[in-house]
Structures
1.
Amino acid sequence: MTGDVACAEGGLAAGCLFFGGYPITPATEVAERMSERLPEIGGTFIQMEDEIAAMASIVGASCAGVKSMTATSGPGFSLMMENIGLAICTETPCVVANVQRAGPSTGLPTQGAQADMMQARWGSHGHYEIIALAPSSPQEIFYQTITAFNLSEKYRLPVLVMTDEMIGHLSERVIIPDAKDIKTVSRTRPKGRKDRFKPYRPGPDGIAPMAIAGEGYNIHMTGLTHDERGYPVMTVEAQYEMMDRIMKKVRQNLDDIIETEGYRLDDAEIVIVSYGVSSRTCLAAVDEARELGIKAGFLKLITVWPFPEDLIHRLAERVKGFVTVEINLGQIHLEVERCTAGKAPAFLVGHPGGTIIPPERVIDLLKEAF
Amino acid sequence: MQKTFDIPRELMTEEELLQPGMLSCQGCGASLAMKLALKGLGERTVVVIPACCWTIINGVYPYSALQVPVIHVPFETAAVSASGVRAALDARGEKDVVVMAWAGDGGTFDIGIQSLSGAAERNDDILYVCYDNEAYMNTGIQRSSATPVGAWTTTTPAGSIKEEPKKDIEEIMLAHHIPYMATASVAYPDDMYMKFKKVRHITGTKFIHLLSPCPPGWRIDPSKSVQITRMATQAKVFPIYEVRRWRFSKKRGRLEESWKYTINIYPDRELSVKEYMKAQGRFQQITEEMLHDVQERVDRKWDELIRKADGRPLTPNE
């Protein structure tokens, strides 16, 4: 199946019962699949009137207790940003898949890129933490969409699945395991007296149990700065307290959230950093480099946000340098450079978008720089 | 016998503002409509196009079909981008240039309706044209709020075909008190041409709703696209009419609000909704019950229209 279809199937496997969709190349197939599959399993697919509505509807559905998702691409992702911010502030779990295409603006609608990575991190206004995953094949899209739901439910925030046109439209074998072999997580629900419930009072793990609209708990959700009761409080102290919670639930659980993979990394002198479709370039490049006597290894970021700062920092102590391979003109490269803290040089093999990066370009840079 | 049309001589003789290089599908109504529209408007026209089939149809460099300035804008902004162009042209004193926003049904009925409503309420001096092919065709046939009852699309698949009637965009626009609203169809080129010729001289927001056949989306033979579009008007599913807000009162010596409805094309043969729908692949799963409801709605709308057009139905010969 294609990556887009695998994304829809991953969502269903994770327990998604609502999809608010809007057509956009190259993400339309996710919505099309959901429009067929959700009614079959008792879920709901609604085609909304635009991406603002699509995003708003999944936040609404999640407030009412249903796992929900949407899928889009660059221009639609831009329109979703305000409601992504609302989900951050109200701590509402939901999943957004961005099947990236080359931008800016309309760009190359039918050709891929990885240039929305910084938008994924900072696209909505204000300061916040978010989780973004980057699959590199249809199979990984399937699993990471499940992971996205699990993280989203556990930490009560929107999780972004940053795929791209290349793997979104790529057909590969995808193995869907039995439902019993798929681990799914659902949000913690409140217990105890309904009249004493405070919707944003964190539990022992720092995350507030989430009540469902309509089950008897008093809920007040707002994008205004709010206190534990959920009511707006326009003070600096309330802002401190709320920001502390939405930042800390991610910052204090980095080990649980961040996932990376290494390939020939143990004795590597040069670390190639990549994610998503560009990972496929790097696997070939590492083998080729080793044949040429260059001791390269590959660090694959499965979680891009939060960024594995400590790992890069530690690697920088012992390696000769870093090369980031990505289909943009330097986004994650800047993060790598920041985290090396000057201890090792960082280079970029970038591309403005529209096609994958051939391994030869990585080899050429390795030869030139090291 | 098929009725033939009196095509004004200008249609044959004027310079073509739509040149080869188009990337439209065979039998595309939207490309034929653009040709006729520009014939009517002339070269002093700026075209504003949001995301829609026409972003593609216009061609990829070195080909570009349109011989007038084109601005491609985001999906949700056709009307207000045109408002901006208008404001600048006015500031520069270029009053005779027509700014035409040219959007599909998704960009008009759905994502673009907020900006269209804003421009219409301000009565910005633009021409807004919706070429309505009744679904998101550019992304591969997803339902829009212009998709009719009973139509198959990829997001209203078999088993859950669309049950909701399409939005009544004509009345929505008239509720904005705009000076001119018309429907037109590629099946009646002379009528369409005359309407585009006319709007050049009307100030304020003009809205034209075009029924624009899409052979892949409607599941019809490309060679039949004009014929089937004509059937839409014959079956009264898509009446061709226009509404003008103002008329000049000689008695008072000024413009007065009159809301004059004129039916421009009377069906030249009786055709049921069923005959129109069954001619297309997209309606193959429509139920008898749905057909009955649609027929009733169509009849009611037609009666209303006749009543609004001064209660005096013109005969085709009049």
Note: Chain A has two domains: 3-181, 261-369.
2.
Amino acid sequence: MPTSRWIAAAALAALLAPVAARADYHIRSPNEIDEGELELEHNGAVSFDRSPANSNLQSYTAEIGYGVNSWWHPEIELDFDRAPGPGQPTNADAVVWENTFSLTDPGEYWADLGLYFEYGASAVGHASDSTLFGPLIEKDIGHTTETLNLLLGKNIGPNQENHGFDLSYAVQSRYNLWRSFSPAVEIYGDAGQIDRIGKFQDQQFLIGPVAVGGFLLGRLGQLKYETGYLFGATRASANGTVRWKLELEIPI
Amino acid sequence: MRLLLAFCAVLLAAGPALADDVVHLAIRDHKYDPPRIEVPAGVKFKLIVKNEDQTPEEFESFDLKREKVVPPGQEIPVFLGPLDAGEYKFFGDFHQDTAQGVMVAK
């Protein structure tokens, strides 16, 4: 495997200070890198809870990315969030520089390995910036594809809410049925600060069914989608969350 | 740190041995040559895709779960298998109307 991708990934990793518990219901694959393709992406999530004070958390992103080569895909993302509870406004709260590195060729080793790194610059005066990074692991087993993201995050700069490293994880188990539709199960968890991980019931843990698919658009490339409903399995999680993703991949 | 290195070593273990033969596939005039290609079933193998055109192409297959750009005038390795015996469709994402092919695992 080319050493240049490892060197680049290691250089970025060296910049890291690990995050913030940012609800980001989005699985990242180490094999999502399409060299020479422009990517327009939108993610959204809305949470529901029996308690009005904890309901209607909303999160949206608008992203543009480009496959620089076969192993590096940077993106710029604008984040919009709405805090839970009645009467809350929706605000742009961060500009995020995302980087996905593919460290192995798909199928070359027992599992495919990648690295994710992002830096989020807060657009809100009283909030800190943040970083998020970690390994992306994927393995094909029969007709299924198993993907695991293990991410560490840390607030940086002034106005930090905490100074520790936050551990979050995401898992997707997908049955590759048809191009236009494949069923999957996803898990999203946030264990909190790694030096003070609490009881499971106090951690975020969501699990639920997701539909994944895509459609060929000829010269326009491909339109991919993901949508699902995640059930909150702990008292720290909202009762339910709808999440979706739309992605247009345009060859240029 | 030792645990992390051991974890990476397990992930990057080679897995099933590669078949001795390398399978070659060309892209010419925005078409695959040959459009129907036989490959060994039950073993891991390396497919070399060479793009002889002046424009990039993307080797893509939902059946094979692969998606990889081939720059003009260059070749790329695609690691595949072990495949069950059967047919697997592939195409060129940038020329979906002409670049179509089938891989037959025997």
Note: The first strand of chain B starts at residue 18 and ends at 28.
